[in-house]
C-alpha cells in the first residue's frame, strides 16, 4: 500500500490537492510580473527586489489577516468566488495605509476536505484581487484537516509585503492642525462585524438563502458583497508628483469601527469631529439595525457604516484628492478637520489597539 493511499484512509486526499493546484495555476500566474521567480508550486515564493537599491532608506511593510466569520455565509450558500477579494482587501489595504506599495502576497486555506473546484474558486478570487491591486500572489498552502474541520468547512488567511521610501511613509507624525479628513466609500459590510450580523439573523430566524425585499435580494448574497479594494487608486494618488506629500495619513476602517480606527492615525492631543450628515449608510446597515432594534450610531464601533478608508490630507489638496479618488472609482468626500485646539474631549474615542493617538467622535445625523 502506498503512502498516499494510507494518507487517504486518514481522510487526506493528496490527489485532490494536486488537482486544486492545477485548477488555480492560470489565475495565480496572471499576477506574476518579471519580479517573480520560480512560478507556481515551489516550497517558497521568490521575488526580485533589486529595485529597492535605488531607495535611500527602504522600509518593508507587512500585514496578515483573515476574513473572519463571513466565510460561514459563503459556505452556507456554496458560493466561494468573492471571499478571496475580502482576504486581499483586509491584508493589502492595511499595507497601503503606511504609504507602501504592495509587492507580493501568500495565502493559507485550511479545510476539512479538499474540493478542488471550491479551492480553485477561492484562490481565483484572491488572484483577481491581487491583480487589481498590483500584488503578486507568489505562494500559498491548502491544508486538509479531517476531524478538525467538517467536510465543507474552511478558513482563509493571508500575508503580504510592501515597500516604501522612509521619507514617504505615512503616519500621525505628519498630521497637523488644519488637515482635512476625507472619507472613502465602502462597498458595504466588508469583512468586519459578521458575528453580529449572524447573531441578528439567527435571533430572528432568517436564513442566508431567504429572499428579502428589504435587503433587496437573497440575504446571503447581499451579505457576500466583496470588500472594496482601495490600494490601486491610493497607490496612484501617492505616486502622483502633483500630489506628492499632501497625503499625511490613511486609516483602514476595519475591526473597531469608525472613530477608533481614525484615532489610531492622529497625533496625541489632536481631535476630529466626523460629520455624519455628509453621507448615508447603505441599505444593508439600515436593514440589520432595523431588524435588531439598534440605532445606526450604536454600531459605529462594529461596522464601517459606509466608510471603508480615511485619508488625512493637506487642506489645500482636499478637493483635488476627492476628485481624483472619485474618478478612480472610489467615491470620496470631506467629513472633518483635524484640530489641536485645547478642549474637553469627553465623549471622544481616544486612541485604539495600543496606540495612544488622537481623539475622534461622530457628530450630527446620517442622511436618510
From TrEMBL:
Domain PurM-like N-terminal: 60-164
GO terms classed as biological process: 'de novo' IMP biosynthetic process; adenine biosynthetic process
EC number(s) on file: 6.3.3.1
Domain PurM-like C-terminal: 178-339
Keywords, ordered alphabetically: ATP-binding, Cytoplasm, Ligase, Nucleotide-binding, Purine biosynthesis
Pathway: Purine metabolism; IMP biosynthesis via de novo pathway; 5-amino-1-(5-phospho-D-ribosyl)imidazole from N(2)-formyl-N(1)-(5-phospho-D-ribosyl)glycinamide: step 2/2
Catalysis: reaction(s): 2-formamido-N(1)-(5-O-phospho-beta-D-ribosyl)acetamidine + ATP = 5-amino-1-(5-phospho-beta-D-ribosyl)imidazole + ADP + phosphate + H(+)
Compartment(s) where it occurs, according to its Swiss-Prot or TrEMBL record: Cytoplasm
Any single GO CC term annotated in Swiss-Prot or TrEMBL for this entry: cytosol
UniProt-recorded Gene Ontology molecular function terms: ATP binding; phosphoribosylamine-glycine ligase activity; phosphoribosylformylglycinamidine cyclo-ligase activity
Family the UniProt entry places it in: Belongs to the AIR synthase family.
Name of the protein: Phosphoribosylformylglycinamidine cyclo-ligase
Organism: Alpinimonas psychrophila
Amino acid at each position: 500500500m502506498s503512502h498516499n493511499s494510507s494518507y487517504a484512509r486518514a481522510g487526506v486526499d493528496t490527489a485532490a490537492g494536486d488537482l486544486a493546484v492545477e485548477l488555480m495555476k492560470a489565475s495565480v500566474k496572471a499576477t506574476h510580473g518579471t519580479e517573480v521567480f520560480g512560478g507556481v508550486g515551489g516550497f517558497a515564493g521568490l521575488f526580485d527586489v533589486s529595485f529597492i537599491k535605488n531607495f535611500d532608506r527602504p522600509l518593508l511593510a507587512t500585514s496578515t489577516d483573515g476574513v473572519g466569520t463571513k466565510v460561514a455565509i459563503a459556505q452556507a450558500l456554496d458560493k466561494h468566488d468573492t471571499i478571496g477579494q475580502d482576504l486581499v482587501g483586509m491584508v493589502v489595504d492595511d499595507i497601503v495605509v503606511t504609504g507602501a506599495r504592495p509587492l507580493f502576497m501568500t495565502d493559507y486555506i485550511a479545510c476539512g476536505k479538499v474540493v478542488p473546484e471550491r479551492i480553485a474558486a477561492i484562490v481565483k478570487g484572491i488572484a483577481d484581487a491581487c491583480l487589481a491591486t498590483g500584488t503578486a500572489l507568489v505562494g500559498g498552502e491548502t491544508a486538509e484537516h479531517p476531524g478538525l474541520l467538517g467536510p465543507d468547512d474552511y478558513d482563509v488567511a493571508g500575508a503580504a509585503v510592501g515597500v516604501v521610501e522612509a521619507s514617504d511613509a505615512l503616519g500621525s507624525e505628519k498630521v497637523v492642525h488644519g488637515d482635512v479628513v476625507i472619507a472613502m466609500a465602502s462597498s458595504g459590510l466588508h469583512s468586519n462585524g459578521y458575528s453580529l450580523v449572524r447573531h441578528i439573523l439567527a435571533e430572528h430566524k432568517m436564513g442566508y438563502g431567504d429572499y428579502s425585499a428589504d435587503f433587496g435580494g437573497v440575504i446571503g448574497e447581499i451579505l457576500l458583497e466583496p470588500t472594496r479594494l482601495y490600494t490601486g487608486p491610493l497607490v496612484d494618488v501617492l505616486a502622483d508628483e502633483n500630489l506628492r506629500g499632501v497625503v499625511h495619513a490613511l486609516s483602514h476602517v476595519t475591526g473597531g469601527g469608525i472613530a477608533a480606527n481614525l484615532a489610531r492615525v492622529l497625533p496625541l492631543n489632536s481631535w476630529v469631529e466626523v460629520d455624519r450628515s455628509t453621507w448615508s449608510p447603505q441599505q444593508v446597515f439600515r436593514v440589520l439595525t432595523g431588524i435588531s432594534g439598534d440605532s445606526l450610531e450604536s454600531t459605529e464601533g462594529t461596522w464601517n457604516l459606509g466608510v471603508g478608508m480615511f485619508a488625512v490630507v493637506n487642506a489645500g489638496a482636499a478637493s483635488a484628492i476627492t476628485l481624483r479618488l472619485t474618478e478612480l472609482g472610489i467615491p470620496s468626500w470631506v467629513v472633518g478637520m483635524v484640530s489641536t485646539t485645547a478642549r474637553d474631549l469627553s465623549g471622544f474615542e481616544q486612541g485604539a489597539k495600543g496606540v495612544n493617538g488622537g481623539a475622534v467622535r461622530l457628530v450630527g445625523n446620517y442622511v436618510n
